[in-house]
Amino acid sequence: MKAAAPALLDVARILVVDDDAHIREVVGYALARDGHQVEAAADGDVALARIAAGGLDLVVLDVLMPEVDGLTVCRRVRAAGGPPIIFLSSRGEDADRVIGLDLGGDDYVAKPFSPRELAARVRAVLRRHAEPLPPPPPPLRRGRITIDRARHVALVDDHELDLTATELRLLAALLERPGRALSRDQLITCAYPDNHHVAVRTVDTHVRNIRHKLAAHGVDPIATVAGVGYRGA
Predict the structure, then answer these.
(1) What average pLDDT does the segment 220-230 reach?
(2) What class has domain 140-232?
(3) Most buried residue among 70, 165, 179, 231 by CB atoms closer than 10 A?
(4) Would the pLDDT of 7 be above 70?
(5) Is residue 190's pLDDT more than 70?
(6) 180: how many CB neighbours lie within 10 A of its CB?
(7) CA-based Rg of the chain, rounded to a whole angstrom?
(8) Are residues 17 and 70 in contact, defined by beta-carbon separation less than 8 angstroms?
(9) Does domain 13-130 have CATH number 3.40.50.2300?
(10) How many CB atoms lie within 10 A of CB 24?
């Protein structure tokens, strides 16, 4: 796949995973024009084998594939600490975006898509991952709750909570500002750094899930502020 490549970008090795050959060709051409080395996989099993082999800088991943779908691929890749992932999917509803991002996706692009926009999003994700890592923040402790943001872990006493990445960011946002009422829009900014058009009521669902998981350990540091949002203890 040959295309004129701009000299401004470092070359990245990118895997495009989609069961539609036309989509693989369109995405591959757009990324090759940016100077990247593009590989392709037609299903989740092939993609997982290639990712496990190492050497990739980013994966563009379809969600709806037969056998092993994109969400399963992402879950397995994240468990192994693999490369960043941009979802590319015909499922563009807010709930679908939330699921993809909660599983560890770095971005989510809905079909039909602009190849130029996708290439720009790839550049943005690559830049973020190329930046030097800041020193890890110290653990946040409030009463019996500890949030270790460096390890993305929340604990009540010594018991680890089964929180999604978004739930952990929401809980941390509330607990690091004790006594301050935060609106849902403010919490979206904290929990969704890239602000992927998240509905404000999605925050309510996440807070309800957090409270349910904390209640199992006898703690509830979140108060509802009528007409505003939520406040952490």
Answers:
(1) 94
(2) mainly alpha
(3) 70
(4) no
(5) yes
(6) 13
(7) 19
(8) yes
(9) yes
(10) 20
Question: What is the residue extent of each domain of the chain?
Answer: 13-130, 140-232
Q: What is the mean pLDDT of the chain?
A: 88
- Sorted by sequence, the CB contacts under 8 Å of residue 25 that are 6+ apart come out as none
Tokens describing residue 195: 């602000």
Statement: residue 167 has pLDDT above 60: yes
DSSP-assigned letter for residue 218: T
How buried is residue 166: exposed, middle or buried, by Cβ count under 10 Å (0-12/13-18/19+)?
A: buried
Q: Which two tokens stand for residue 87?
A: 């979802």
Residue matched to tokens 């978004």: 166
Under the banding of pLDDT at 50, 70 and 90, the label for residue 191 is: confident
Identify the pLDDT of residue 124: 93
pTM exceeds 0.85: no
Q: Report the candidate in 65, 69, 60 with the shortest Cα–Cα distance to residue 88.
A: 60
Rounded Cα–Cα distance for residues 199 and 202 (Å): 5
Residue 63: count other Cβ atoms within 10 Å of its Cβ. 24
**Of the candidates 190, 191, 181, 162, the residue with the CA atom closest to the CA atom of residue 222:** 181
